[in-house]
Design goal:
By secondary structure, this protein is mainly α. Helices cover 72% and strands 2% of the residues. The chain is built from 13 helices and 4 strands. The strands form 2 sheets. A two-stranded parallel ribbon has the order 1-2. α1 crosses α10 (263-290), α5 runs antiparallel to α11 (298-316) and α6 (137-162) packs antiparallel against α10.
Length: 366
């Protein structure tokens, strides 16, 4: 995705939307105490608020300079700082890619094709992701716009064909245990929106201001996710709560007339979403790495990073239990907080201190 041209803000947020939706589709609820069913209908409230707050440091950074990036600030601090930040951000993007492809593998191997070895298919996905990443950012942008259309049609079909089974008795009053569980659920959902890190480096590659689209993107995501969670709970009830992949459980129930069990077709759409997300994170990791190091050819970097993703995936995909246990240590939350909040804030503070020091030093010379 390193083309010479740029993409529109709509295409950019289309990519981010596709990436976040597949994360939602393959989401595994492993700790129901922190993600209580009764609060899911209101999840959009803390999700939007916390998401906007988390994006503030990145928005301030790119606002320091028109179409700026985080490396505009680190370069003013020190080349060593730039290299360190580059490696940390690239590693975080690779981690997100590995987690994403592992979730996809676990979904396919436990629901669609139980006990099927998918390693060869994952290799093909990685190869395809390299090709997409290498072909240019415009390719991913055009793909995402088309994919969003198919997502909209498929979700509309699911909603229309299952809403008549919706029972309000399956829902519980929200905030039964206070506001704190809702806030925790919102924070947990926001930390799975690692696409916010893209704000730090993508501004020069997007026509228009991406700052204006962040709020709209988060608002749409929050409302859609909350609405789908409410529909899932209202339609599937306790049955849905026992399912590992709840949105898939809802798609299985979709049928109209002679058209039944379109879950396989819908899953094909999610395969494209997974491929787009993998290519996007592969490209993002290379872009972060390129910010701190001179790269003559990007192809070896893409290949090397793909092997890193493959190695992490091999370790994580042993079983759903192992994968859930690894994530239960709060790795995603830690990575998100470090990359999206802590590091950008530290960089902003360091840059402010450096500027003040330079001003005072210049005054002393007068």
């Amino acid at each position: 995705m390193k083309g010479k041209g740029k993409i529109s803000t709509f295409q950019f947020f289309s990519i981010l939307f596709v990436c976040r939706m597949i994360a939602f589709f393959t989401f595994i609820i492993t700790d129901r105490s922190e993600f209580s069913p009764e609060n899911r209908s209101m999840l959009f409230l803390p999700y939007i608020v916390l998401g906007l707050l988390a994006s503030v440091p990145a928005l301030i950074i790119i606002g320091k300079k028109e179409n700026g990036t985080v490396f505009d600030l680190t370069n003013r601090l020190s080349p060593k700082v730039t290299k360190l930040v580059s490696v940390i951000f690239a590693a975080a993007a690779l981690w997100s890619a590995a987690v994403s492809i592992t979730r996809f593998d676990l979904f396919m191997s436990t629901v669609m094709y139980p006990e099927t070895e998918l390693f060869a298919f994952i290799l093909l996905m990685l190869a395809a992701a390299i090709l997409i990443a290498h072909s240019g950012l415009e390719t991913a942008g055009r793909m995402s716009v088309i994919i969003i259309s198919t997502i909209g049609v498929s979700l509309a079909f699911v909603v229309i064909t299952t809403v008549n089974h919706f029972k309000y008795t399956n829902l519980s009053p929200p905030l039964l245990n206070g506001v704190l569980p809702l806030i925790k659920s919102g924070f947990s959902s926001v930390t799975r929106t690692s696409e916010l890190a893209a704000l730090l480096v993508f501004a020069p590659k997007v026509n228009g201001s991406i700052k204006k689209g962040v709020a709209v993107w988060l608002l749409l995501l929050g409302i859609i996710i909350s609405a789908l969670f409410t529909l899932i709970l209202g339609v599937t009830g306790e049955y849905g709560e026992r399912q590992m992949f709840q949105l898939y459980a809802l798609t299985v129930l979709s049928k109209i007339g002679v058209i039944e069990r379109l879950d396989a077709l819908i899953c094909a759409i999610w395969v494209l979403c997974s491929l787009t997300r993998l290519a996007f994170y592969l490209y993002t990791s290379e872009l972060f790495f390129e910010g701190g190091f001179k790269i003559k050819s990007r192809t070896p970097v893409f290949i090397a990073f793909s092997f890193i993703i493959l190695a992490a995936y091999t370790c994580l995909s042993r079983s759903v239990t192992f994968f859930s246990k690894v994530l239960s240590f709060g790795i995603n939350e830690t990575v998100f907080t470090l990359i999206i909040i802590i590091l950008p804030i530290i960089i902003l503070i360091a840059d402010r201190i450096k500027q003040r020091y330079n001003k005072s030093a210049s005054k002393s010379l007068i």
